[in-house]
Design brief:
By secondary structure, this protein is an alpha+beta fold. Helix content is about 35%, strand content about 20%. A hairpin with a 5-residue loop joins β1 and β2. Bound molecules: glyoxylic acid and manganese (II) ion (2 copies).
Length: about 425
């Protein structure tokens, strides 16, 4: 397929994606952290777009935005599609936003082409999925699926010490919610009959195998921890090596063990420390305290749990040997989530009918879909990411690849709702 063959509604989706990318904090790529001014502007924009396409817009108390196309049988459960509006720091313009832009266009296209659906269709722009600002992820879909009850907002704070509750109180988008549009959507949804999320792959498999569509069979389980290691800050010139309780030296050993253990277990286990803070972070002071994160993923829950248990024992041994204190706080626990077999078989059949190449795959990235999977039939559709790069300004999928994903999304929504 070349650029000239892209359908008008797909072009409209691409334009929408460009417009959404403009809502960003300064710096390279796209940065849209939860409840920041740029995040608010993006949700206002999405809300307006939904309303402009004739969808009935509602906003829940954490800022998830829904656009509804009511079906002929409104008593039947809703078919929901969408993704998250937030990004990582200096991320790309496709992660999350693609699933929202495509969903809005898909609903508009379906209504224009086939009229009112039998089942109600809704698009959602979840407020947060990445865990980039606050040390908790899936705040949007987690609110809808009862993972969170809102009490977390009081205790959870960002790097500046602003609590999630304070950020919500200050957020211009949340302040704009009127009682009118808030009344119906207090949060938890028990009326969802199926959830479909279209997303970029964020890995290299589709590109390597020259495949257009990834049909996701499951999403890996994940654990995140914040680790605090405390020693004694002291003078770097006067403290002999054997008398130190150097927190950073201990952490270096822990991270070495983390990598060795992870390599020993092998694929598909992955383990990452992506953030590390050193206190007091001075050249002539022995580090007294370190904070770092752990992100550990595996498709098998037992293997994941075993790894975390083993890691904790090793870390404790290192801390004891070096007379350091260790505090391992779990901040995220997500079990592996299989997608609905009937639904992904239907997605495959659609790919066959549309003459698109496809393959089964596991998702190593976390997604809102994994929270819906235990509650209702859930499917994820992937399109290729150039070079397998994501969570980076370099993130890119071609217009043809994005349009192909939209075709599949439209077809599965048609099948579910018409
Ligand atoms: C979200 O993108 C994640 O997998 O961390
Ligand atoms: Mn995402
Ligand atoms: Mn992401």
């Amino acid at each position: 397929m070349n650029g000239l063959e892209i359908q008008p509604h797909a072009l409209e989706m691409l334009e929408l994606l460009d417009q959404m990318a403009a809502f960003t904090a300064p710096g390279s790529g796209v940065t849209r952290l939860l409840y920041t001014p740029e995040w608010s502007r993006a949700q206002f924009f999405v809300q307006e777009k939904m309303a402009g396409f004739g969808l009935e817009v509602t906003v829940d108390r954490v800022g998830n935005v829904y656009g509804r196309l009511t079906g002929r049988n409104p008593e039947k459960k809703v078919i929901l599609t969408g993704s998250h509006i937030d990004t990582v720091m200096n991320g790309g313009k496709y992660d999350g936003a693609y699933g929202i832009a495509a969903a809005v266009i898909a609903l508009h296209y379906l209504e224009q082409t086939f009229g009112q659906p039998q089942r109600t269709l809704e698009v959602v722009s979840f407020c947060e999925e990445e865990g980039s600002r606050f040390p908790l992820a899936y705040w949007g879909s987690g609110h809808v699926t009862e993972r969170y009850d809102g009490t977390e907002a009081e205790t959870c704070a960002d790097a500046e010490g602003i609590t999630l509750q304070a950020a919500m109180t200050e957020c211009s988008f949340l302040k704009s919610r009127t009682d009118d549009n808030a009344s119906e959507r207090s949060g938890v949804r028990n009326d969802i009959g199926a959830f479909v999320e279209l997303h970029i792959e964020q890995g290299i498999i589709l590109e390597k195998t020259e495949t257009q569509i990834g049909v996701v069979q499951g999403i890996v389980g994940q654990r995140r921890y914040v680790v605090k290691v405390s020693g004694i800050a002291n003078h770097a010139g006067t403290t002999p090596m054997h008398m130190r309780q150097d927190a950073l030296a201990g952490v270096v050993e822990m991270l070495h063990v983390l990598e060795c253990l992870a390599r020993e277990v092998g694929e598909p286990l992955v383990a990452t420390t992506g953030r590390l803070e050193v206190f007091p972070n001075m050249p002539n002071v022995i580090p007294g305290e370190i904070l770092f994160t752990l992100d550990i993923r595996h498709s098998n829950e037992h293997e994941l749990e075993d790894f975390c248990t083993k890691l904790s024992l090793e870390f404790n041994e290192i801390a004891a040997k070096r007379e350091l204190s260790l505090n391992l706080t779990p901040v995220l626990r997500a079990v592996p989530a299989p997608m609905d077999e009937k639904l992904y078989t239907e997605v495959e059949e659609i790919c066959r009918q549309q003459g698109k190449t496809f393959r089964h795959m596991m998702s190593g990235a976390g997604h809102d879909a994994q929270l819906f999977a235990p509650r209702c039939p859930t499917a994820m559709i992937f399109v290729p990411s150039r070079g397998g790069i994501s969570h980076s300004p370099e993130e890119y999928s071609s217009p043809e690849e994005l349009a192909a994903g939209l075709d599949v999304l439209i077809a599965i929504l048609y099948q579910l709702a018409y």
